[in-house]
Amino acid sequence: GAVGLFIALRALDMAGYVPLAEEQTPEAEATIRFLFGGLPCVCLLCASAIMAFYPITRQKHIEITEALHRRMRGESVTNPMDGTVLPPLMLRPSRSRRVNSSVTS
Q1: 68-73: Cβ within 8 A, 24+ apart
Q2: DSSP string for the chain
Q3: How far is residue 13 from each of residues 21, 38, 44, measured CA to CA in Å?
Q4: Amino acid 96: pLDDT
Q5: Around Cβ 28, how many Cβ atoms within 10 Å?
Q6: 26-33 and 2-14 are packed helices; what angle lies between their axes, rounded to 10 degrees?
Q7: Cα–Cα distance for residue pair 83/64, rounded to 1 Å
Q8: pTM to 2 decimals?
Q9: How far apart are CA 105 and CA 96, in angstroms?
């Protein structure tokens, strides 16, 4: 969030953007078009390429979910992604408020 905003504002500044001006320089207009149109398209294409080669199928997702549930029950499991043995998860008790039943109104 903040880093992206910093980069975008810096790019606008370098392109000669003037806040509240009735007309912007051609460089500022091109930068605005790129930031609102081109950059999201580039990010979408990169994300699509990563997802296309990511090794999780529906079956693999089911195996991962089942392994997580078994680990939460205190069992050691084999990692469905790489075959390594994973120890049980040691979950901390929740920090919910406890009502003292001996206190009455």
Answers
A1: none
A2: -HHHHHHHHHHHHHTT--TT-SS--HHHHHHHHIIIIIHHHHHHHHHHHHHHT----HHHHHHHHHHHHHHHTT--EE-TTT--EEPPP-PPPP------TT---
A3: 13, 18, 25
A4: 58
A5: 19
A6: 150
A7: 12
A8: 0.53
A9: 21
Rounded Cα–Cα distance for residues 57 and 101 (Å): 49
| pLDDT for residue 56 | 85
Mean of the pLDDT values across residues 56-71?
92
Residues 33-61: pLDDT tens digits?
Answer: 999 999 999 999 999 999 988 888 899 99
Between the alpha carbon of residue 53 and those of residues 2, 26, 46, 82, the distances in Å are 29, 39, 11, 16
Q: What is the mean pLDDT of the chain?
A: 87
For residues 64 and 86, give the distance between their C-alpha atoms in angstroms, rounded to a whole number.
12
